[in-house]
Amino acid sequence: MVDKLIQSIKSAFGSVSEHRYKNAQIPLENHLQCAFAMFHLKDPSLNHYRLNYPERAANLERIYQIESLPSDTAIREAIDGVGPSELQDCFKIPLAELDNQGIMKDYQVLGRYQCILFDGTQHYCSCKAPCQHCLTKVHRNKKGEVTKITYHHQALAAVMSCPGNQEVFPVACEAIIRQDGQTKNDCELNAAKRLIPAVRKMLPKQKYELLGVFDALYPNGPFIKDLGLAHMRYVIGIKEGYVLVQIKRLKAQKALYVKEWVGSSGQKCTAQWYNCLPLNGTHQDIKVNFFEYEEVDSKDNRLFYSSWITDIEITEDTIKELVAIGRSRWKIENETFNTLKNQGYHLTHSYGHGKKYLATNFMLLTFLAFLTDQIAQRVDLDFKKAWKYCKTKKKLWEKTRQVFDLLPCLSMNVIYRFIAREIKIDFPLLE
To answer: Could you identify which of 121, 293, 298, 376 might form a hypothetical disulfide with 323, taking C-beta atoms 3.0 to 4.6 angstroms apart as the criterion?
Structure first.
């Protein structure tokens, strides 16, 4: 499975528009595949990757179909000019494989929707050498004096998830960067307005019904209308606003619907809800449904509380699953960003900044490598056995690089089988 994905991604890179001079000797897809291999192998830096070319050349050609080994400068310069939207289109290949494997159907919630989690994270930061797209942050001391200015890039990710399933699958990413011709910083809400059409392009409405899960930055009328235009249902966290004013009044009247149950650890779980409330005075035409959830222990100490709005009708039969969907938004922080930053993918390491789109494109390639691994984790038996043998992801990545550097291998699956001790090599004893 992994090797099939690698070959398909290489083919997708072949569709990326060539932006360099006409007589470029090494094809652009070769540079892109070189960078993808670096992130898939979890090398800590581009320099480290380049220094290991001599030992890896044969396996890079066999497994990743890399025919030429360019310098690190050549890789950066080639990828810097690639439009991020073209790299985003390459996500269609692994996402189509998810559908072919039946995972899309397995990941449906409420019997019909693909649950898409949205959240932002920083992936590049520097105190010098800003590019035209860098966001800026002014740091001041207690006296209000400027101490330094930092430059950074952020990204808003859309990740497919399902409560009760461990794997998450990135669908699309949008850079939160200073837009062309703008003098002010970009923001997560504006990035979301650009990202939603990209998600819909990856998962067209003719085939998929989507349910977006957002945090409390998003419960505003214009954004909710944009979701409707994109044919995306929603569950959005809410912490303030006119909806909560109405709920306070309804609680005083004891008009909320209530459902209670006992959690897996013996905690008392209570969900309350009410359907068809106007969002606010300005957008009274937008009707939302409210639900909240609370957990308390045996001594009535609160363990958890949160509240959401949705455009899906809430019933006795759907409330528990809606609560699970609302709470699953943390999976993008834990299973996605935490993994990418702390479990070997080096998302926040600067592999290169560039003058145009290099930092953004390296971020997209990191997510593409992560998506490949998540699919392997879900369906590839060899990957699962190697992971079980190594016990941790970091150890698995380390073992993969060691085998990749030392032994000639025909495929990544052979490497996983070797790590799991299903393939053994007997060396003749020296006399």
So the answer is: 293
Q: Which pLDDT value is given to residue 352? A: 86
Question: Per the confidence metrics, is the pTM higher than 0.70?
Answer: yes
Question: Domain total for the chain?
Answer: 1
| Sequence-distant (≥ 6) Cβ neighbours of residue 226 within 8 angstroms | 193, 196
**Most confident stretch, 63-77, 166-180, 364-378:** 364-378
Which tens digits make up the pLDDT trace of 344-360? Answer: 899 988 888 888 899 99
Q: What angle do CA 164, 169, 174 make, to 5 degrees?
A: 130
Distance CA 73, CA 70 (A): 8
Whole-angstrom CA distances from 333 to 232, 270, 323, 428 are 22, 25, 18, 49
Residue 194 lies in a domain: no
Tell me, what DSSP letter sits at residue 66?
-
Is 382 contained in some domain?
Answer: yes
* Whole-number pLDDT of residue 18: 86
Residue 253 one-letter amino acid? Q
Range of the domain at 72: 2-89+352-419
Q: Hunting for tokens 């509240």 — which residue is that? A: 307
Measured CA to CA, the distance from residue 31 to residue 27 in angstroms comes to 7
8 Å CB contact between 22 and 64: no
| Residue 44 located in a structural domain | yes
Handedness of CA 269, 306, 198, 29 (dihedral sign): negative
Q: Which helix (H) or strand (E) holds 156?
A: strand 146-160
Copy the structure tokens of residue 429.
């004893």
CA dist 307 and 273 (Å) reads: 9
